[in-house]
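**User:**
Everyone, produce one record:

**Assistant:**
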Amino acid sequence: VRMALAMAQGWQLATGINLLGIGSVEALAARARAEQMFGRITLVVDAQRDEFYQAIFEVTPDRLVEIEPLKIVTAATVDARACAGELIAGPEVTRWFPTGKNLFPSAAMLVMLAEHRNDFCHGKQLEPIYLREASFLKIPAQMKH
């Protein structure tokens, strides 16, 4: 993601094009609409560590409304939603939630979303969404040798 943002920023500097940031869960919601999956949909993407990125959308034939913004949740949280009968969708979700619906973003959905937007921005304003604190261990000085 960082490399794609750097490329977009460089392309803007070189050509003066306008940039637009569209999140992958919004593209998933658009794909759900294209597949006529209407109603409240819990969109999930594997975040590793037995966690998932989750956002909830209300999908109608005319609109995508974000009900709950993207956040990290446990697998148990998503499983509870699935057991309650909620529609769970996202890339390869049936690996973890058999009642879910596999759904993948597509370039066509990005184009469809972008053609109806005008909130272009400068490349400096585009940033990846980090929901997890960075965690790494520094090697103690005595071990570097």
About this structure: The helical segments are 2-15, 24-34, 75-83, 107-114. The first helix runs from residue 2 to 15. The radius of gyration is 18 Å. The chain has a mean pLDDT of 87.
